[in-house]
Amino acid sequence: MTAITQSSRTNLLGLSHEGMEAFFVSIGEKKFRAAQVMKWIHHEGCDDFEAMTNLSKALRTRLAEVAEIRGPGVVYEGTSNDGTRKWVLEVEDGSYVETVLIPSDNGTRRTLCVSSQVGCSLDCSFCSTGKQGFQRNLTAAEIIGQVWVAQRSVGPRRDTANRPVTNVVMMGMGEPLLNYDNVVPAMKLMLDDNGYGLSKRRVTLSTSGVVPMIDRLGDEIDVSLAISLHAANDELRNELVPINRKYNIRNLLDACQRYLAKCDDTRLVTIEYTLIKDVNDQQEHAEQLAALLKELPCKINLIPFNPFPHSGYEKPSRNQTMRFQQWLYELGYTAPIRTTRGDDIDAACGQLVGRVKDRTRRHERYIQSIQLDAD
Ligand code: SAH
Ligand code: SF4
């Protein structure tokens, strides 16, 4: 597979069903071609119109002139000892994004952690992506391209038993709700039967709390929602998740309630809580968290802080993490601890860092601070 380069042809990879129908109408073809071509692309992993044997030779030739199926280039692919697979992908401008596929312990689920942006502008204090600054939004093709690469690496999906990706979480690099216009079509493809056919409970968008966009999301698409809370009072959350200064905890939880009201089933919001040693891992924090979430139908996921150089934070001990879990349990919450997977290939979901080529000033300053520290 070749890396993405600029082209004037329409890239069909990122088109939702509506988008694909509009494309076929624009070239004077019938709408039903959309489903046919989508199946070739997303079920078969096909990127060559010539192979699409249920299309006429004339249409195949026409498509090759005006369109293309252009996925990200695979720069690195690795599998860790625990079965976690990781891809480093090269996208349009030579930036790299990382995608990881994490198998569940019992082997029934394989969750793909997908990135939405190169870097992130929100600068959460404990997040390595935030430290890199923001470079750019990924296109819809680059977002769904991550699923496409993972899918085709194990061969065509002809039946549900042969699904390398059973769940998707938008928990890689970037804030998905700040790239709404590209994330939504990509998520539609994840749900579409002509795309990846995943159920709405198996596609999760994680946000640090862009409140107006949570409302918009609920109006437009039905997926599961995860909230990166990490603190149960505004003072601490302002420090850890700076967007809290704009949309505070009350605003955020109200938006979660409105989101749930739009779901037609008994959905829960997932609350992500990264445990940071001596910052938010004490009994008072567990109590505040339990009190705060009393009214919200939710489940809590505990994520031990994933250390990276010069973060200034530490991971709590295993004992402290379990104590925190126990406090929550006594307060009525069963909160699983999300274990870090794929450590040996540096593939922790939510901390896809590393080799992003970033040219922003913030990143330069960060690098300089590291160098100063090292002196
Ligand atoms: N921007 C979105 C999605 C990407 S981050 C969001 O913030 O929700 C995915 C998850 O990983 C978030 O819950 C984030 O807070 C968490 N995370 C980021 N850096 C981390 C770190 N160093 N250790 C543990 N979790 C981290
Ligand atoms: Fe961005 Fe999410 Fe990292 Fe915050 S935690 S800086 S929103 S990627």
UniProtKB/TrEMBL annotation:
EC class, as a word, reads transferase
Which InterPro entries does this UniProt record tie to the protein? Aldolase_TIM, Methyltransferase_A, RlmN_N, RNA_MTrfase_RlmN, rRNA_lsu_MTrfase_RlmN/Cfr, rSAM, rSAM_sf
Signal peptide as annotated in the record:
none
Name the reaction it catalyses. adenosine(2503) in 23S rRNA + 2 reduced [2Fe-2S]-[ferredoxin] + 2 S-adenosyl-L-methionine = 2-methyladenosine(2503) in 23S rRNA + 5'-deoxyadenosine + L-methionine + 2 oxidized [2Fe-2S]-[ferredoxin] + S-adenosyl-L-homocysteine; adenosine(37) in tRNA + 2 reduced [2Fe-2S]-[ferredoxin] + 2 S-adenosyl-L-methionine = 2-methyladenosine(37) in tRNA + 5'-deoxyadenosine + L-methionine + 2 oxidized [2Fe-2S]-[ferredoxin] + S-adenosyl-L-homocysteine
Q: Which Gene3D superfamilies match?
A: 1.10.150.530, Aldolase class I
Does the keyword Amino-acid biosynthesis feature in the UniProt annotation? Answer: no
EC number(s) stated in the UniProt entry for this protein = 2.1.1.192
Cofactor: how bound = Binds 1 [4Fe-4S] cluster. The cluster is coordinated with 3 cysteines and an exchangeable S-adenosyl-L-methionine.
Listed under GO biological process in this entry are: methylation
Residues binding S-adenosyl-L-methionine: G174, E175, S206, S228, L229, H230, N306
The principal location of this protein is cytoplasm
Positions annotated as active site in the UniProt record: E98, C349
Q: Which residues bind [4Fe-4S] cluster?
A: C120, C124, C127
Q: Where is this gene product found? A: Cytoplasm
Family according to the record: Belongs to the radical SAM superfamily. RlmN family.
- What further note is attached to this protein's record? Reaction proceeds by a ping-pong mechanism involving intermediate methylation of a conserved cysteine residue.
Q: What is the role of the protein in this entry? A: Specifically methylates position 2 of adenine 2503 in 23S rRNA and position 2 of adenine 37 in tRNAs. m2A2503 modification seems to play a crucial role in the proofreading step occurring at the peptidyl transferase center and thus would serve to optimize ribosomal fidelity.
Identify the HAMAP family for this entry: RNA_methyltr_RlmN
UniProt name for this protein: Dual-specificity RNA methyltransferase RlmN
